[in-house]
Structure formats: C-alpha cells, structure tokens
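Here's what a typical entry looks like (Xaa-Pro dipeptidyl-peptidase):
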Amino acid sequence: MKINQFSITKTSSEQKLRELKMLHLLRANEATELDPTQMWLTLLARTHMASEQPIAVRQWLHDLLATPTLAIDEWLEHDRSLTTDVFYLVALQLLHFEPEVDFDLNHPLEDWAHIGLPFVQHTSWSTLDVLEAFYLLLNTRNKNGQSFIDQLTSEGFLAWSYQLPAYKKPLYFNGKPLASFDPAKFIREVVYVETDMDTDYDGKADLVKVEILRPVDSNNGLKVPAVFTASPYNQGTNNEWGEKVTHHVNHPLTHKVAGENAPAEPTFPKQFTHRKIKGESKRATESFAETPAYTLNNYLAARGYAIIYSAGIGTKDSDGLQTCGSPEQTDSMKAVVEWLHGDRIAFTDRHSGIKIKAWWCNGNVAMTGRSYLGTLATAVATTGVPGLKAIISEAAISSWYDYYRENGLVRAPGGFQGEDADVLADETFSRTKRPADYQRIKKTNDKYIAGLAQAMDRKTGNYNQFWANRNYRPAIKNIKAAVMMVHGLNDTNVKPSNVKALYDELQKLPVTSKLVLHQGQHIYINAFQSLDFSEMVNLWLTNKLWEKDNHADKTLPKVLVQDNTQPETWWKYDEWTAGNERRLYFNKTELSANDPKLSSEYRFNDHQTAETFEKWCHNINDWQNSLIKDHGKFSYKLTTAPAEKDLLLRGTPEITVTVASSADHGMLSAQLVDLGTAKRLTISPVLMNRNGLQLGFHWASDDLREFRLQPKTSDYKVIADGHINLQNRHSASQVDDLAANQFVKVHFELQPIFHHLLKGHRLGLIIYSTDFGATLRGNEEITYTVKTADSSLLIPGVMPL
C-alpha cells in the first residue's frame, strides 16, 4: 500500500500551535507546562470521540499498542520516555492501519516510510516536537482515504464549531477550511437566471433553473464562494429515446466530392423580450429535496462552499432547446456565473417577476465536473467571464470535432458507436419530464434537431462551421481563471487529445494551470485511497475562492502522473512533453532508427467473413484481440527491438504513411501498443470500501476505490490510436480527390501518451483500416498497400528511467 499526499503546506511552528488551539486540542499554557509524554497523552485523549469520560479513555488506551507487547497504559507503568517508535506505532493504529496486515509491529517506522506517510525524525522528544508531530499526523491520510483531521471530523470532532458565529468561519487548518458547517441546516433553494437568448423561439429570453446548496451561516453575514457544476444531465435524461435515435454504423465509407458542404445549423432569434421586474426579495420561493450530486462537491459543501447545479437550456424547468456544446449552451452556463458574481438578474420563480440576488456569495466562482460537465466549465472559462476564478476540468472536451469526428471521419467516442451530437441533444432534452411543457415545445424541438443533424454532417465527416462553433480552442487565449485539468490516459470516451490541446495553450498564458493524469478511463478520482485529490482541490480553491494566501500554487505539482506499471504510485513533473524525439522508420516489419534504403510494400485486406464481421460488431474485445494476433491478413504490424532499459514516453506520437487503397475512398487507422507480458493495472478502479469515505459529520459518503494489479498477466496494452480519411490528408476540412490504387502520403497524430515502457518490452505499431469500436464498419473488399519508403513513427519525449 502506498499513499501519496501533495496538499500539505509548509506551516510555521507558531501557526501550528495557533491552529491546534483553534481546534481545542491545545489549551492555555500546556505547551510549556506539560512534558512530552503528558502532552502526547492529552492530545490522544482529546481525539477519542466515543467518550470524554476518563474511564472510557483509559479503556481505549488499553486497546492501543505502544510497543509490540505493551498497551499504552501498560507502557506508561514502566515510566519510559516517548520515542519515535512509540509515537508512530500508535499513529498507525489511529489511522486504521492493521498490525500484521498493513504493517509489522516490530518495524513501524519502516512500514510508515514504505506506505509513504509524512514523517519527521526525532532523536529525542520535546513538548514542541510532540505538538508539531501531532499536527503533521492530523494532516496524514488514513487507510480509508481521508486525513486524520477529516476522520475525526466525520466522528463529530468539530460538531461544536457548528454553533460558532458566522464571522469566525471558516476554520482553516493547514491552509484549508475544515468541515465546520452543519449539513443538517444547509439551505436548499432554486432561482431562475435570465439569459440573453431565445433558443425556443417563443419571443422571450430563456430562463435557466439553478439549484443552490449553501450553509446557513451565509444567512448570518458570511459571504461564501460558489462551486458551480454545469450538468445537462442534472434534471434527468431520455435514455430509451437516445437508444432509438442512435445512428447505424454498419455501412461503407463513400467517396467524397470537394466542395460538398453541409447546410448551416439553425439560428436563433435576435429580437425577444426580457421579463419586467416587479420587485425584489432575498428569499427564494422554491426549494428542492435532492439533486444528482458530485461527491467532490459534497465534500466541499461541509467546508463552507455554496454548491450550485444547473442543467442549462433545454432541460426540465428551464427554457430553450438542447444544442450540444454550442455557444448558446455555453452562454446559458456563463449567465449563472454572472448572476453569482452580481452581474445578471435571476428571479425567485418563473412568473412573479420578483428578482433575487446572490447576496450571500462573495462573488468568486469555481466550476467542477467530469465529461460534459467539465466541457462546459472549459467552455465558460474561454469567455473570460468575470467572477470565474478557477475551473476543475475533468475528462473534458476542448473540441467537439475531436469527440465525434477525426481527420475527416465519423468516429464514435469509445463505447458509444452511433452516438452523435443530435443523439446527445435528444438524450439530455429533459423538458420531456414535464409532459405538458414538452407537448408545447415538441414541434419546435423536432425541427431544430433535424437541422442540427444535417449541419453536423455524418455524410462526409468533415470539419465545418458546425464543429467550429463547438471548438473552444481558439478562445483558450481568453481564459483568465486558474485551470486544474484531470484526465485519464486510457480514456477512450473523451480522448486525451482534448486535454493536451488545452494544456499546451494554457502554457502560453499568464494563468495558473495544474494537470493530473491518471491511468483510468472516463472516471472521477476524488475517492482514491492513494491520492489526496479532494484535499488538493480544497487547498487550491481556498486560494482562488476564499483568497487565502496558502501557497497552493507552489505546493501542488504542475503535472502529476499516475504510473502505469505499479499501483498507488504518482510522480511529479514540470511539463507533459520533455526529452528527446525519436523517429522510427518502417523497415519491413521492424520499427528502426535507421532509415532503410530499399522500399517494400505490404498489403492487407479489410474484408471479413459475414460470421466474423457480425461477431466483432457485437464484441469489440474479440476484434481487438484478433487485431493483435493478426499476421498480415487485415493489418500491417511493426515492432521495435526490446527496450534495453525502462523508458518514459511523453507527448503526442505522429505517424507518416505512404498508402494506396484499391477503391476511390478509404481510411487508415493505427494503434501504438506496449508489447510485453506483465501484470497490468485493472482497467477500472477496484471498489475497496463501499460508502467508506465519510465527507463530513452525519453527511454524505463516497465509495473508496483504487487501481490494483490484475491477478493475471497480459501480453499487450494499447496506449494510443489514431484514424484518418485518405481524402482528408491535408486537413479535416479539405477534401482531396483519391483514385483507386493511387499512393498518397498521410500524416496524422495519435493520442497523447505519458507511458512507462518496461525494460524488455517492445513498442508495436499496427496499421489497419476499420476500427470496430470507433469508425464506420462497411466490411468492404478493399486492399490497402503500404510503402515503407517515407513511412515513419515519431515518438516524442523519450527518456530513460
């Protein structure tokens, strides 16, 4: 077991003592009047939450080992001085680590270090040493994925703080607010923010529903920051509807004609009216019981942040249509930020005309969320809207073309063959949940979706104005908020190219950016055992939203990457791409650093038997395993020599291939593969403790998870892929002619990597055509011929480990 902590900030001795007094752990003149052992025992007793009675504390001490053979009370009878071994042996037990399971009773310090817990060596102990060590212990994470102070808080350690006057909150410990806000008294209210658009053509500015969860202390003078999650899923989804409108993909690619353009997408009215203001109130008229919540937000709520959810236009209780990533959808979420900052009007309900301000907010806003949610956080940040001080952009799209298309091809996100922008718009159009409202808007929505479907252009797969409207990258230069990016290196849904493009552009701006790359797919990472992600976010948002000078930017790594070869291991870096480029040439079936003088030709045919085709359409894993094992029938495989040492590969691989298709159309796909027998990390995190991560006292919980090594070895792992239409060899928007058997040179990028290649493993490059998990599946009788001349693979950032 390894635990990694990056959120502990450097704190002076004086500040540590002040904070311990603030927690009621240190009182009066104890720091000067008590000896080290007395101070230690006093601190222990005050963290025993089951009972304050002396007899109960004595019994508790009788059940904690001070040495391998003596309980604390027995050890005290020997009148010995406190030692480092004793302190940390007890500390391991306080943190719920189990003797003989997680650590050796005879070697607690060695196991403390092996687990990776923070430590300060002491040859002898003074009272100040005890206080500083206990302060560090409070910041140390336990076996169940939370710091000791949060463990105590979830047991009621800070329940007394609920009664503190608002002006004394938050309670900061090590630069972060503690869970000192009573969840039982959270205020739940609904407001309706008025936008500057009319996307349902009714002549009135669209209203969007906003749900607010905030501490009662914000009614009593405490101005709190807002953490806003923009989620089109929040008010419900039309899953069955989405399945019915999913597109068929088992049909051939076709020859494209230059100049063939898709219709423009529908536009929205420029003339519409705003609601008349008939009064003002500080109280909302509507509330809510529960709302789909992000558990990181639940963690933050108990620490004083107001939590905001909105599904935006085209959702239940809001106006408008679902437009799937359009500027209008971005502006509907931007409007919520503007209201929180004090720059926009909201109403207490849909009809009264009574406006309401976010008078309880300090004007500072962060946005959080994964996938579509993180996408909208990124989109809103590119508007440069005042008040948005930070975003945590997790598994987010930075260009929708890179989500549903690639290099002139219709290409599905992993696991969602046949989905497209129109399907997602249908699935998230939750105005269907109010039947009468839906009947009134049905014809308008049907007409709009039909126009959207034409504009997105599944026929050619080209980049056009529809996709340009949903490409946030040109506007990254407008970002003023600090950005924390989180992405899975194995995410086949929102692929890593989306975060790499955002990361690269942010490095050119005078804004703070942080990057966390994990080994998962499309997941959240705030409930991992091995990483203090929630504490990192709390530290960061304390700096950005509470405006506390806690050295968050210096404390948190610039780039944090989870190792792909061993569990629970995270490494700090200064940048994503670094090291030497290495160009590998096609030398028959070898990838070689030497450019071969003679050219060879390799052919493969994309057609499969009807039985095989049907099987692979229904089982993508069977196709993938067959592709790896294929010996030139429907692919061309090249490999490197075994690595002579461990290598780190960082950046975006690029491939150049000279190829011909036997038809007047065609597509090329490529996979970069780590070839070598090893136990690899599980594809998804393993559930370790259901509801085991407590987010506050009598509050919400989360499931503790972690990646583990798979019980069996595997022979390969796909680490990157890429696809291109042979008629889009110059750009995704430009169509070039293609004749049968015409050799053309194509150049395209694979997905970005940050990969640890073990000694003895080989890199494999597989070139093929149909990707059964992502592209159209025409099963055509097409032969592809690859010329090795002028064909190569560029691997960036190659560094020995």
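The chain is about 25% helix and 25% strand.

More examples are in the samples folder.
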